[in-house]
Amino acid sequence: MSTTTVTTITSLTPTPGTSTKGQNRMTLDGKPTSYGDFRDDLNRDGYAVIKGAIPLDRAKNYADAFYTYMEGFNLGYNRSDPETVRRGQLPVLNEKGMILDYGVSHEQWVWDIRGEEGVVDAFSKVYDDQDLIVSFDVVNVGFANRVDMPENKPWPHQDQDPSKPGFRCLQGLINLHPCGPTDGGLIICKGGHALSQQFHTEMSHDERIPAWTPEWYGFTDAGMAWLSSHGLQWEKVCAGPGDLIVWDSRTPHYNVAPRGEVDRLAVYACYMPVREVGRADLVRKREAFECRLGTSHWPNAQHVSKTNIAMRDGKPCPVARERPVQEPVLSERVFRLTGIPYLEEMEREEGLV
Ligand SMILES: [Fe+2]
Predict the structure, then answer these.
(1) 108: which of 64, 192, 239, 335 is 20 to 30 A away, CA to CA?
(2) What is the 339 CA–ligand 1 centroid distance (Å)?
């Protein structure tokens, strides 16, 4: 293990009457609020942009690390040569631009982004809680030169089981390049979070698009018409390098490919309070961390990848790998985001270690 040893952590069991942790957790109910920061946008619209969550110089360094990572597979991709934006010269990515495999979720540069103070702080404010765990999620590259890339068709969806209403999960992505109206990125149905329960009540008869998890709901044409007839509109979310975009999982969304000259570079990161997570979740999460596996956007590791081996044309990719190129070395603060210190405290209290 290359992580730091954690010797002291915040207790999971606050003294009765002394903790206000989580008492001001946002409700994301669509009503006006007066926080005076991004939370007002988030509560009203179901999404928000946190400008400069990562300072610009570091955002540029992370973009450089992203390109260096893709070049480092030595398949022929070179950021300076658009002709090398070819599937055979890149690590395997899906039509939405995600690199899912190769242990990318645990690369040092990805962990450095997850550990950025301005990013973590935004989620702490939403949950009114400093004790958070983070998803081991993937990265997204949307190349401007897409001649060899499959079409990225719209797949408007929510990332939350309709049978479990209410605000449960705040998703996030750190944007590393300029992202304007014609650049690739997130498209979101503004205010859709607040009408989610009504939608599912009134549209429960609608056909369900098959999904790999009940925590995904895809909108049919009829569903899209319902959103439109209730005055909701889709917006392209624009952001600068180092900005954090957050959205309620209930807010309908998808992403679009670039139509301009700029590559889209994004890293997904989602946090939730460890208090909202079960012991079994933390056990599963520790295993995922130790095996350097991904957990989707869910910090509670309810979905864990089976393998890091990328498949290319039905066969293991020649440069497939089980573990990251650069094993992560985490500070004590960032290591807490794995959930492992909290689990270890539970085990100490149970006398298991
Ligand atoms: Fe999604």
Answers:
(1) 239
(2) 23
Q: What is the 217 CA–ligand 1 centroid distance (Å)?
A: 9
Q: How many CA atoms lie within 13 A of 31 on its CB side?
A: 4
User: Which strand (E) or helix (H) includes residue 228?
Assistant: helix 221-229
How far is ligand 1, taken at its centre, from the CA of residue 1, in Å? 32
Half-sphere exposure of 59 (CA within 13 A, CB side): 23
Distance 159 CA to ligand 1 centre (A): 5
Written in H, E and C, the secondary structure of 11-46 is CCCCCCCCCCCCCCCCCCCCCCCCCCCHHHHHHHHC
> In this structure, what DSSP letter does residue 179 have?
B
On whether the pTM is more than 0.85, the answer is: yes
Q: Which helix (H) or strand (E) holds 316?
A: strand 315-316
The domain spans of the chain are 36-349
> Separation of 172 CA from ligand 1 center, angstroms?
10
For residue 273, the CA-to-ligand 1 centroid distance in Å is 20
Ordered per-residue pLDDT tens for the chain, 353 residues: 444 433 334 444 444 444 568 889 999 999 999 999 999 999 999 999 999 999 999 999 999 999 999 999 999 999 999 999 999 999 999 989 999 999 999 999 999 999 999 999 999 999 999 999 999 999 999 999 878 777 888 899 999 999 999 999 999 999 999 999 999 999 999 999 999 999 999 999 999 999 999 999 999 999 999 999 999 999 999 999 999 999 999 999 999 999 989 999 999 999 999 999 999 999 999 999 999 999 999 999 999 999 999 999 999 999 999 999 999 999 999 999 999 999 999 999 998 77
CA of 171 to the centre of ligand 1 (A): 8
- Extract the tokens encoding 8: 């002291």
Q: What is the CATH number of domain 36-349?
A: 2.60.120.620
Report how far ligand 1's centroid is from the alpha carbon of 89 (Å).
27
27 CA to middle of ligand 1, Å?
Answer: 20
Centroid of ligand 1 to alpha carbon of 155 (angstroms): 9
